[in-house]
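Q: How do we represent a protein-ligand complex in a form that can be generated token by token?
A: Start from the inputs.
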Amino acid sequence: MNMQNTPFNLAQCIEHAGKYFSHQKVITRKVEDDTLHEITYAEVLGRVRQLANALQKLGVKQGDRVGTIALNTYRHLEAWYAISGQGAVCHTINPRLSPAQMIYIINHAEDRFIFVDHIFWPLIEKLHPQFPKVEGYIVLTDKEHMPTTAHDVKLYCYEELIKDESTEFTWPEFDENSGSSLCYTSGTTGNPKGVMYTHKSNLLHSYAAGSTDGFGINSMDTILVVVPLFHANSWGISYLGPMVGANLIFPGKRMDGVAIFEVIDKYKATSAAGVPTVWTNLLDFADKEGRKMESLRDVVVGGSAAPPWMFTAFREKHDAELLHAWGMTETSPLGTMNRSIPQLDNLPAEEKAKIRMKQGRPVFGIDIKIVDEEGNELPRDGEAVGHLLVKGNWVVHTYFGADKPAVNADGWFDTGDMASIDRFGYMEIVDRSKDLIKSGGEWISSVDMENLAMGHPEVLMAAAIALPHKKWGERPLLVVIPKEGQNPTKEGIKEHLKSEFADWQIPNDIVFVKEIPMTATGKFSKLTLRDQFKDFYAEAE
Ligand code: ADP
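Then emit the structure tokens for the protein with adenosine-5'-diphosphate bound:
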């Protein structure tokens, strides 16, 4: 053997942080009382090892699935490392899933134990009789906040469970291709599908995501982790943060503008990552209060398309750069990231700005291409739009428990997104293929329409959906939440849309609402909206 060959184990991230960044911190808005809590990486490491010892005593074995139904907190992070580090699989479960989906995935994963925030216990307790394989629950809280149960099931208090355990633990060595973590897609169509990440895939992903052209962070940074630990690995930040020794801020259950602004300000966050809706609320709050986020350098946004006004707002009002990233559960999730390259410097400012708003270029380790219906590759000219395919060592090959691969014969995974790729390699998502609005044989991008509508000064949020229409097959409807105290008119918004859309693309109607239904991952739930408005154009000519 020429070189050493220690198999990757995710516990190495927290071991490194505890040893070499011992004073750096994990800050949490506690779920119990919304107060702010600080703990160092050295302390986290000790507690991770205590928990690993406790889990062994409970009989957790390599390969076992252990679930978590929890928000972003230091305890949830500790559970991640203790579970995966000893060779079990950390199955993150989105607490906002419907009961039916939760029952499906917990049974499909065959979770033996589940870590749960005390606030979700009442919900889980009701569902418990439908989880025949679950042997016990560990409530991520202290003695004081411990719930009780009427069921004949083991309920452990997290702090009590670990308190007498040793802070020493020897991580076992096993194949780095073993499953470390399991995350189900939200299953907007059909049953949710599980993606089983491995120690190797997660670590490779973290190296790439942590590179300068990825999140570009180091121990000088404090990162606000809005993106949930329960969804797509918190975009890898919970591994790469400890790897590079960055401070982490976990916002607990408070995602509102006031609370998010407070932690950014108080802890001088330099970087933040989350979906666009969170930033909309944050920017709205900062605007109303006339306050600036002084410390922020960059904000990574993904999960759905960030509207153009958001890039300008962060840059002009907060001197922060909004970085567009694209990915999905199936890609761990980082696929592309929008960073600049030298060639863009020769372009006119307006063209460069447009390119910088696209979803970005693949990070090293990922390849992308677009193809037509027959699978023929389309040109990288920024014009052609096709099905986006992706390949890489942190992209799904076969869904958990599935009998056939999710990739084609050449190993490419079809993302279900429609996109273009320009001559510089920047990819732009046009739409999810199922959200495209197909009117009279032509299509309209719901993403473009929403982006433009959300640039209207009186509009807070807007979702464009396709509704069945007798004559045209489908026609667009725009659902709008006005900004507080504003009364935009349908005509005004239509005029605004005409600046970029042809007359035939303009929505037949616009409805004003107070709320838009969201998916469990914080995106507009177009499925619910389409259902809610399904007969809206039934009589329309
Ligand atoms: P869910 O299906 O619950 O939304 P995923 O996180 O796996 O879960 O969703 C991935 C999808 O989100 C992508 O296929 C794409 O359609 C969309 N998406 C992710 N990032 C972006 C982005 N920056 N811009 C537009 N769409 C995005």
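The pocket of adenosine-5'-diphosphate is lined by residues 185-186, 188, 232, 302-305, 324-329, 359, 415-417, 429, 432, 519, 521, 523 (CB under 6 Å). The CA atoms of residues 466 and 476 lie 5 Å apart.
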